[in-house]
């Protein structure tokens, strides 16, 4: 009988890929962790307990077949492991890098509960597909037989790209419209290179383009074409724009020079990394070099900002968050990485005012304490009287999350139904908006969420769109099938 390669968690310690030393990695934007060598990946995958109820899969939004591809990896069947991993995810190596595994798969690993340390699922997932790219196992996108129907996808982020891929494989002509000059959305311009190097994204988008998906970059819906014009151009539309409107802070001095939005700051840094001309970076407006930087927020965007500021050569970097460490929404691993790189966290603190007149020079902050639980069950922060203090700041970055933009106004489509939060209102079964043939998925429906959830939504909406499009008759340009006609087709 062959020796059992699994269930090695008692005798084999958890081992993440080694991280570069903090002083060295803080000097560049390369990813901070190395990739597993093949033997190490196989050994770490072999720690999986192959439990009867795989909580890792249950808590993965994509419900990836994690125990199965861990076993295949442990057995050295790496191509099969890749194929199985790729079966449920369009971007497994990206999820392996940026998913908060400590809150999802690894945080719910059974052997983590037994105090043996979880299987390093994210690192193995990253290894599997990176190795597949190296070995030439990642096959080109092959479109299915042409159906004579076209789909327009608005937004080239993870939800839009995922749906575009599945729909192209199903045989549809797919056009992706995005206002940026590169595809990828926040994968390209929001997430820094030390978490996700950009060639990882571009090789994915290049594969889609080579498979016949047509990208329209620098295209603003409402300006270059209205939503209705796109509806007349295509048989179905998917809105997958994400949410980009920064949440505001109501405090005196918030409009001072040096008080910035997180996405403006991160986009400038990423564009500089691409070699683009970025005047606001070069003149220091969006460059932290030599400055005392204060970042407000406790999510992953805030962690991206503080760690970017360190790499830009900031004199000091402080992060103000209104709750304590245990109640922050961001990844604890990212917080640890930031602390290792020299970021100072000021827990239980919130800004009261931005001082200095036209140019910010300090943040007037107040200490907070945790009171009764709020509607979400988390203890609500409240000001602690008499605890005000000043934090020197030449640059303040607001990283409080994102809300939906006013899409009916931007798209010149006042008839598009939205919720009171500005997200698109959809039917939960069909994922269609109130407009016939116009679907929506990702953050623009759910609000700001995880990349892995956007990929799941892109996969789901492609199935709903495919089902709907199969009921379409051959129509003249601009003609729509009526609900009554659709019922007769279905019957």
From TrEMBL:
UniProt cross-references to Gene3D superfamilies, sorted A to Z: Alpha-helical ferredoxin, FAD/NAD(P)-binding domain
Pfam families attached to this UniProt entry: Fer4_20, Pyr_redox_2
Domain Dihydroprymidine dehydrogenase intervals: 25-136
InterPro entries: DPD_II, FAD/NAD-bd_sf, FAD/NAD-binding_dom, GltD-like, Helical_ferredxn
Single GO MF descriptor: 4 iron, 4 sulfur cluster binding
UniProt cross-references to PANTHER family, sorted A to Z: GLUTAMATE SYNTHASE [NADPH] SMALL CHAIN, GLUTAMATE SYNTHASE [NADPH] SMALL CHAIN-RELATED
Protein known as: Dihydropyrimidine dehydrogenase
Native source species: Sphingomonas turrisvirgatae
